[in-house]
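Progress report, Aim 2. The chain analyzed during this reporting quarter is listed below.
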Amino acid sequence: MRAGKRRTRHLGGFAIETAVAVREHLKLASLRLLTPLVIRWNWRGAKATDLSVRNELIKVNGGAIKVRIYLPRGTGPFRVLQFFHGGGWVFGDLETHDALCRELCVQARRMVVAVDYRLAPEHPFPTAAQDCLASLVWSRENAARLGGDPDSIVLCGDSAGGNLAAVAAQQSRQLHPGMIKGQVLIYPVTDHCLYAKWNSYQTYGTKQFGLTYEGMTQLWDLYLRGSTLWHAGMTTHELATPVHMQDLAGLPRALVLLAEQDPLHDEAAEYARRMADAGIPVEVRRYTGQQHGFVGPKPGPSHQQAVADIVKWLQAEQLEANHVDQE
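Predicted structure tokens for the chain:
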């Protein structure tokens, strides 16, 4: 009788775990399917078209990933903007950020290389970071062939993509000295929400403001689950939590965009402050009344202002680079 009860209890637990796994799988599938469709609908008839677009496949450790090349009209070589999309490391792709990449390409007159890094949980941490680092080597080796300047790479990413851009900038100091000329971090993830009590999570981490503390906790779990580098008891890792990197000296200049009503506001602001304290030229732009994700998913005044601010910063970065080259 006792054995029968234990077996029933065991089978019941298995059924619950299976149901949870099924719900998680369906939620992820829905996000990956519906998000691009919603964004495409938001941008119907409004995407920039005065450019050329092509897709290429690049080899990475354990497989291959797609990259999408956006090239403005005119004669190059064009400076390169390497773009890592957001989506909590578990969704998002070339389509979700196509409109934003088009605008950055046309308005900044840059060759934009959008990277379709592999997603968790199928490809857990640090796969996304490693894919992004591999894409930088590919861009340096192929930029000239595609119409870009291989010595002008600036990183850009939003949310989880901002996390990957920050990590790539840090890692490139030793791996590829001098290759990265700048970084544009759009409300980046810089810390694991479970291990730091940022005030912005307490103030803006509810459903009222879109991205929630609970949602970020789930995204971190999906990203780190099954990782060979993140183990029980860990709270930071150099490929996951850039705000905890002890030495920030020598990083490229940075533009950091912050949304006021964003649970990630404080950790992103802290990373900008720490870079500035380390002597890195940092410009911070705060957008009053805006929530996480206001750049990219749909056109509008706040999105347009953010793109204009990025373009202005990129133009200033180019002038500074030209000045240094002439010295």
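Helices lie at 2-42, 98-108, 127-146, 160-175, 199-204, 213-224, 265-277, 301-326. Residues 43-326 form a domain with the Rossmann fold fold (CATH 3.40.50.1820). These observations will guide the mutagenesis work planned for the next reporting period.
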